[in-house]
Amino acid sequence: MGGGGQQTESSEPAKGGGVGPDGGRGGSAVYTWEEVQKHCHRSDQWLVIDRKVYNITQWAKRHPGGIRVISHFAGEDATDAFVAFHPDPNFVRKFLKPLLIGELAPTEPSQDHGKNDFQALRDRVEKEGLLRARPLFFSLYLGHIVLLEALALGLLWVWGTSWSLTLLCSLMLATSQGASANWWNHRHFQHHAKPNVFSKDPDVNSLHVFVLGDKQPVEYGIKKLKYMPYHHQHQYFFLIGPPLVIPVFFTIQIFQTMFSQRNWVDLAWAMTFYLRFFCCYYPFFGFFGSVALISFVRFLESHWFVWVTQMNHLPMEIDHERHQDWLTMQLSATCNIEQSTFNDWFSGHLNFQIEHHLFPTMPRHNYHMVAPLVRALCEKHGLPYQVKTLQKAIIDVVGSLKKSGDLWLDAYLHK
After folding, report:
1. CA distances (Å), 15 to each of 21, 190, 266, 370, in order?
2. Gly residues compositional bias: what residue ranges (predicted)?
């Protein structure tokens, strides 16, 4: 993160104790950023937390959050990410002790570029209990999902399976679907750790179908890469983006992950979901009709998911790793959508995307309480705090795709 990208003029060798169990030089060693940054490879990984240097080369494979998310910070300062992702950092620090190999030299800069106010804000958030969930809120939220599913089934039971009722039933069911929690968490942790960073955020890995941001299109154009007619991507996005992400791409990826990782418990839970669905709707539609129904429900859900998630990120900065501090990185990659009762419900409170990224373990019902504090912090440090209308956010998604496509075409033809 931020400090990992800074170096001092000092190039003195590290000083300290002997070789540690993981190849370190002992917990009393002193390192410069220059030396820490050398250990950023898959087979050699160091990182910094609270100015302490840790060798995570072997531990990364056992990391409960997945090897990728922790490896994204190899050679960098992971302090803010460590605090953000772990509800009880003090407990986790017990597991860090055997990995400690030293600390940063006193002359080395910290990772926050002087933005200590963010840590003060986080301390205030914790003190005021804004990281604690309200069971009643989530009980009511679960209740409204169960109610929608019951209403959908009741409509078919009482009034039959006409086209209009089937469509209404599908709309209700589209608001109450889900995915593998294990797969989603491992994917989403990476997104939160390095949003809009190529090769680290899976959400901007478009598999050559799209070119994103301002730099990737030019890179593709200069290399004469044309996997797709990218200057038309703002048009074919409507055909292969919202309609297919969940029904095709995510579904294949979920089951592929379950089998490759032999996650049989996750697979069993997924099977119970599909079993319940077919038990409920087979009497009304038969086997193939039930398959068609769940496919259509996923099709509708996919539209909601793509627009809600991409309107906060796709029009923002998308780039290669720049080693920014936590606050700057999250703000450059996210924006908010205006608060309203509809926007809160429609987006699942993800209209507060900035707060969601700065405090990933914060319950959604508290975003609106911390938002004014975050905005004030941004004003103090001259950082952008973008808030858009829902309509503008959706339009910006298409506009950003067109801009990237035009950049690609210009580079492809003229560079």
Report:
1. 17, 34, 47, 43
2. 15-27
